[in-house]
Amino acid sequence: MTANWSGMKAKDVAAIVQETLRKKGIDSTVVGGSCVEIYSNSKYTSGDIDIVSEYSLEEIENALTGLNFKRKDKTRIFERKDCEYFLDFVQPPLAIGNAPVKQLSNIKTKNGIIKLLTPSDCVKDRLAAYFYWDDKQSMEQAILVAKTNTLDYKNIERWAKEELNLIKYKEFLKKIDENNGG
Amino acid sequence: MLKPLFGNDVVEKILFYLYYCKKAYASKLARIYGVRLNGIQQQLTRLEQGGVIVSILVGKTRLYELNPRYPFAKELLILLKKASEFLSEEYIEKYYMERKRPRQKGKPL
After folding, report:
1. Which tens digits make up the pLDDT trace of B40-62?
2. Chains A, B: CB contacts under 8 A, how many?
3. Chain B residues near residue A100 by CB distance under 8 angstroms
4. Cα separation of B104 and A147, whole Å?
5. Any idea which fold A10-117 has?
6. B22 touching A, CB under 8 A?
7. How far apart (Å, rounded) are the C-alpha atoms in residues B50 and A92?
8. What residue spans define the domains of chain A?
9. What Å distances lie between residue A155 and A120, A123, A169, B19, CA to CA?
10. Would the pTM count as exceeding 0.80?
11. What is the ipTM of this complex?
12. How is residue B25 annotated by DSSP?
């Protein structure tokens, strides 16, 4: 594949990487800040692409050789010199908090299909960081996703309740309202 | 106690410390338990890469804590809580009951 990697967006990198893995029979899901980047049309940039796969890092390493992504030492990180994003193969399982992820999204691009968290799970993932560490950047990212995507608010609220963080979830709703001029 | 499960003593020590004291940095763990810093650092890295613990840089110190977003966080806490019931009071006193309240700089005690 003769792709121009420098200046490529997360969406393009994710699609090429996942398509390559798929051809080798390796299933994977994009998670974390990269989902925010994809759903917000790059209004936020994470600098890395977090991917969860049940397959071994050795199998992934072999599959990505053709793309010139090299594993950094013995870590879970893969880099390519001319690509501004590195790949972080996060430890499975695929989960939001302590619950397994049941539903995923697929986005078709010119470079292939990206399999990633749904916008609602992406928001939950960001809000979890706000709930646990009071990380305001994560709250901002959740708002970015909420502004441009349809969310299952009932589902997110139920989750926030289970996480015993309804108060912080209400802050999120208030901020969305303010962003919408409410 | 949990060595057969975790594979080594150091991981057990790290997890017990984080269970009781919430946060820790590598050199402190090495000092408290009297083990090699390198060994502690290796296991901290392994646990962090596995998502069991997370870290944050405070000044020049990397502070570690149990990852509340680890999918098995609740179950791990239950296991550590149960295992802690088998620790002697002397052991808990020795390793986990250090002073946590503030102390003014320069104060002798």
Report:
1. 999 999 999 999 999 999 999 99
2. 22
3. 71
4. 47
5. Beta Polymerase; domain 2 (3.30.460)
6. no
7. 8
8. 10-117, 120-179
9. 8, 11, 12, 31
10. yes
11. 0.75
12. -
